[in-house]
Amino acid sequence: MPAFEYLALNGGGKEERGILEADTARQVRQLLRNSSLTPLEINEVVQKQKKTDGARLFGGSLNSADLALMTRQLATLVGAGSPLEEALGTIVRQTERSSSRRIFSAIRSRVMEGHTLASSLGQFPSAFPSLYRATIGAGEQSGHLSQVLDRLADYTENRQLNQQKVSTAFAYPALLSLVAVGIVIALLKFVVPNVISVFDTFDGQLPTLTRMLIASSNFLERHGVTVLIALVIFVFFVRYLLKFPSWQARYHRLLLKLPLVGRLVRGINTEHFARTLSILASSGVPILDALKIAGGVVNNIPMRTAVEEATVKVREGMAINKALQQSGYFPPMVIYLIASGEGSGQLDQMLERAAIQQERETQSRVTKMVSLLEPLLILIMGGVVTLIVLAIMMPILNMPQFIHRS
Question: Domain Type II secretion system protein GspF, which positions (predicted)?
């Protein structure tokens, strides 16, 4: 039964939007009239589909929070014995966001038409990543969909929680940096010019620090807008360059070489790779397909390329741990755990342990970086303000030497 998105007027003349399931648009209009609503616009959800080069491109996406919540709801309902179409219908009724309702209504319609859940999710690739679709497909084939949904719910919730921790950890240093730059600019542009105007009456050469402060203030006064425009252009230019794979690969390679950032980037990507491969392997996905999909969740291009090369070597008969070890990007502990899993036949469990270990190390590194960054920013801001104050006070303290006696 197809889903229709409607726009109607209620008895008070206010517009209402929603989604109804019916055989035809005429039946939707009749249902709306029976509910004392005046239909204005009726659109079938699947009519938003477009075809390009024989491939379907569907609109709609879900953020990490919505995906985690709805995966947990679906896992709970299916685990409780609810039929899949009823579980999807419950999610549609409980969802407040119209875009999410549209996506799950279309998925439910396709499931009721006889399509698998995995193929129905494939109509929205921007909302459901390849890991998600492949894992559910394996769960449907093996008959363990509820268990697979539970693992996916844990995975999506854990990933969203980690993203929140990282963003929250760096929020205060970012705000502190912004405030520090704003204070320095305000001092140089508004306070310093008024103070240094007193020095025009001084006879003799001002201290070097004072002259540097005056030059900085004059430069900001004359070219501040130009510098700001240049910085904006530079940022957009860098973002434009990073759209090209070659420049993006250079940037990612540079990140891996940075002292602190490199280890953080390797840890985050290794954790995503290990956890994804663990879920896929435990769900029954063939190991070569699992490696290919797990490589897709690695954001760093050199590390993703290393996984692709390792997949080729595994296809030729090499062990996974040896293939990954040759790249030099993955931590020795992860390689050791993968080797143990291959030797004992418990690869999925060892990969899960590797992911947990990398997650803990990453969180520890983030905590240390933030704990060092906050006092460092405070010291830098205090040092700059101190230099400004010294540059202003030095001529004043030595005023008898500089006052011009007429």
Answer: 71-193, 273-395
